[in-house]
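Methods — Computational structure assignment.
A single polypeptide chain was analysed. Its primary sequence is given first, followed by the predicted tertiary structure written as structure tokens.
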Amino acid sequence: MQPRSPSRFATPRIAELIARRDLSAVFQPIIDFEDGAILGYEGLIRGPAGTPLEAPFALFSQALAEGCTIELERAAAHTCIEAFARLGVEGKLFLNFSAGAIRQLTDAREDTLALLRHRGLDPQRIVIELTEQSMIPDVGSFLPVIAALRMAGAQFALDDYGTANASMNLWVRLQPDVVKIDRFFIHDIACDPLKFEAVRAMQHFASASGAQLVAEGIENEADLIVVRDMGIACGQGYFFGRPHAQPARHVTDDARDALRAGHIAVFPEPTRMASGASPSGGMASAKMLVHAPAVPRHATNNDVLELFNRLPDLHAVSVVERDEPVALINRRSFMDRYALPYHRELFGKRPCLLFANASPVIIEKSMTVEQMAKLLASDDQRYLADGFVITDNGKYAGLGTGENLVRAVTEVRIEAARYANPLTFLPGNIPISSHIARLLGNDAGFHACYVDLNHFKPFNDQYGYW
């Protein structure tokens, strides 16, 4: 038996693969939700089957190491165009390119158009996707490149929006015809309120900019129904079909049934309001702020008495040093002491810190309601009578009262309960009313059931909220 030649098992160079035409194309369908038709296909490249370079990531990693990434991109595009033309399918062909490859594509515009015409493809059926890994140092100089693509008849798309380099900056400056939302935001969107809100923000901007959205990574019916009901026009993902050399010509029955499903998606709602928000917006601590004069550390008790006599509504006074609070003097306790015989004569000229609380409750102006609510559960309840000091970046800003703190926390929690029950986190009145409005707006039939459970407290006390 002759020994095997090591070269037979060595990883081939990318240039060799290109020269041997050892690349192949697979296609994944992109679906138009309105009519359930296949809008087009994304062309993807594969290396030799059964080799370490079959997967695209390994293929392009090798090309990067060899310094021939753009050559591989061009070869991949030619391979996809030729295979797409042979298939004779309808719709658009989406092709992935880095920024550098797109520049070369427009520089060799006539060669590219010649290839398309030779294969019988109208350039208007081509959508060029800018991949998310692409860095564009000078976006301004890239604008003529996009203009040249459009003059040739092709459309321009921003791929995997929301990750890596696919940013709002590029969307605003390049004004793509199509924006493909990264699969991270679509996966489990049916049960993730933050992903839902992020995609809804993208949808608002797409409407303003005139871009068409494609939701990538749709893998189940629940995510599809939410994306569909949000009004996003197109989608792509394993639910419609995996990349294949012989892609489906029509949407599967399961996908068609899901697109035509009459039920309306229940949009995911946050279980609570943003922790820093008050019912009317802004930080609650700022709304509780009482602008009040302070006294310096070296002030006397007579100075404090004079201030309280001059301002009868002032519940307390803060002692400050270099604009930072160091103590708090409550009006009632201070005046009660002074009502005792001879206290004014004995202590009037003494330092005001003598009757001050040297460890007052201090709330930063930016503190959230949730953080302030912890005070209500703390062992130290002196703030209810004394009030507390409010600071702005550590500097004295004013005072607050225990009464206002309790009122602010209560109001925010009542408002939050309208969105979700604070014990069960089940939807509150606002999301329920919103969903019913959507049902009515879509002429969807539904049943409503209201249940009032009597004597539930004993059950709850025994078994707990869960």
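Note: The longest strand covers residues 24-32.
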